[in-house]
Amino acid sequence: MTGRQLRIERLKTRIAMRQPLRFTGQTKQATISKQAGRFYVSILVETEDYNPHTPDQPSVGVDFGIKHLATLSTGAVIPANQQLKKHLKRLKRRQRNLSRKQQGSRRRAKAKLRVTRLHQRIKNQRQAVLHELSDHLTRTYQVITIEDLNVTGMTKNRRLARAIADAGLGELWRQIEYKAQWRGVTIIIADRWFPSSKTCHACGQIHDMPQSQRTLVCDCGHVMDRDLNAAKNLDQYGRDALRRDLKRTEESGKTGSPALALTT
């Protein structure tokens, strides 16, 4: 293959790709797949010039949610990733149109393809947002602390199931995990029952807060958005965990990893 041209032995003509290869090296394998009537090629390249980009910021806590996809302890807020909700009316119209077509007809096949392509578009848009966020986190921070989310259990809530599935939290977790391995980033998973949202980040007092209460107001005078407060508590949770690990490492006389030295 050269540039954006892909040559396959069984085909006489070259195939034009939408973008050139991102890496230089020896092409080992190409897998062609068809999704929603369109063809995709996945190319495996053996390369030595891949730079995973070493993060330069110490740590961050990340609180995932539905109202906002993620809130970082730095104060950054990533908007909700609700691609299905955005396209739901159009999807329902196409599904109704499909249901009216005669079984086995060409019109039904076309209508079915339109539904499939819209599903694929929703999936691609969702994946783009998740990849952008997971890339940003693993390229920027040496230590990332996140909650141990029970996504399966959360989807059993009928009122929230669609929104949770649409957000793609399970897929986001998977992406953060494998990209962290690429870049040598430390992932700390807070205990599932750690009250990150209900604990005052300033004094540590735990409050009884319903889900509808979006602002934490503490007796000590601390007032903060619920999600930002949770993210800051998660960041502190991760830092404390690293300090404990570093102390145990020093006591055992072993050399700690660079991540364990992040105490600032």
What are the salient characteristics of this protein?
264 residues; alpha+beta; Nucleotidyltransferase, domain 5; 2 domains; five-stranded mixed beta sheet; two-stranded antiparallel ribbon; 6 helices; 11 strands
Structure characterization notes:
By secondary structure, this protein is of the alpha+beta class. It has 2 domains: 5-46, no CATH class; 57-76 and 115-245, 2-Layer Sandwich (Nucleotidyltransferase, domain 5). The protein contains 6 helices and 11 strands. The chain has helices at residues 83-99, 106-140, 151-154, 161-167, 169-183, 226-252, and strands at 5-6, 15-16, 26-35, 38-46, 57-64, 68-72, 77-79, 141-147, 186-190, 215-217, 223-225. The strands form 4 sheets. The protein has a 5-stranded mixed sheet. Helix 1 runs antiparallel to helix 2. It starts with a strand and ends in a 12-residue tail after the last helix. The model has no long low-confidence stretch (mean pLDDT 86).
| CATH class call of the largest domain | Alpha Beta
How many DSSP helices? 6
How many DSSP E strands?
A: 11
Name of the CATH architecture of the largest domain: 2-Layer Sandwich
Q: How does the major sheet shape up?
A: 5 strands, mixed
CA(first)-CA(last) distance: 48 Å
Please tell me what the overall shape is. flat
Family: In the N-terminal section; belongs to the transposase 2 family. In the C-terminal section; belongs to the transposase 35 family.
Pfam family, one: Cas12f1-like_TNB
InterPro entries: Cas12f1-like_TNB, RNA-guided_DNA_endo/Transpos, Transposase
GO molecular function, one term: DNA binding
